[in-house]
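Moderator note: this is an archived Q&A kept for reference. The question asked for a predicted structure of one protein chain; the sequence and the answer are reproduced below.
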Amino acid sequence: MFKKILKSYDYSLIVVLTMLVIFGLIMVYSASMVSAVQRYDVASDYFYQRQKLNLVVSALIFIFTALIPYKMLQSNKILVPMVFLSLFGLGALFIFGHVAGNAQSWFKIGASSLQPSEFVKLCVIIYLSAVYAKKQSYINEFNKGVVPPLAYLVLVVVFVAIQPDVGTAAIIFLIAATIIFSSGMSLRNVSKLVGIGLLVSIPLLFMISGFLFSDVRVGRFLAYQDPFKDAQGIGWQLANSYMAVGSGGLKGLGLGQSIQKLGYLPESHTDFIMAVIAEELGIFGVGFVLLCLGYIVLRGIFIGIKCKDPFGSLLAIGISSMIGIQSFINLGGISGIIPLTGVPLPFVSYGGSSLLQLSIAMGILLNISMFVNYEQNYKNKEEHSKPGKTKKTTGQAFSFRK
């Protein structure tokens, strides 16, 4: 039994994830070694050592969550405290939160900091997946099956947006939209939600536009349009990101040889780490990261489609969409496709909260894949081998609509 379970784990996912985080650790050291000394007045390997510790803790959490059956997360004994703690954590930021990067998004704990909104992303995925999985029998009853779970989502998005952290709020909203669209509800109900959302959000945005659209955010949008118009001012970050990406070429300048990280490119080890990768390792380094991230996202979606359990299916798709959406927003920001939002690159950027949350999510995804593979390779065969037994099937949330 135990050997069959071990054989059912998706080891290709583990290998790709391991390669990506080790590569990220190397690039954190390369990207931060100068700014650690010049800007933060610490040892050149300060951020590398801290990220290495984050990686060890995250690896242990990853193994633990990969071994715990994901269906336990569907229990009200876990869902109710999780919802309460996530809202309490976001609310407590307005009293005890630490301000950094124009947002009150962190709890300062000694030399470390914790960002609750990173973990709230996963809470939203688990909650919406669990609730919509339970409502499969009446998923198309709008007032009963569609609307109730959205109260939690609205509260979370509002709390995160007014920190203000518009980038993370947008990610949470897009993740939720992916889960809702994949839940099996009709396009008619999806259209209703879109219409209601527009009717509520547009007037609200006008009311709080002065708060959300600060000078910094307006500056980012203007810089996105033409960063070199004010390269010494609001376009500084994006202009230097362009120069880093453009100077890397095919092979790059060589590991550790970035020029833009020498005080020109801010947050070189967090939000702009891909710019340093492009400069030092060229298209090969960028391609490696994109292939690894692409494999994880597509593999997760494939696991979600194969999973016959609605909760597992939505959970896998939600986790995959989170990684894909966050990667697009980070890469789109440094390349000028979309305005900068200050979102880290999954598994690669420096950050303990992000890495820990992603490790929990990947452990859950790996556990789902194990159950899918075990059911396909062993359980179904055992059922068929018993006389008089027929294969039982369950509903699946992710489906193509008629």
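Archived answer notes: Residues 245 and 278 are 5 Å apart (CA to CA).
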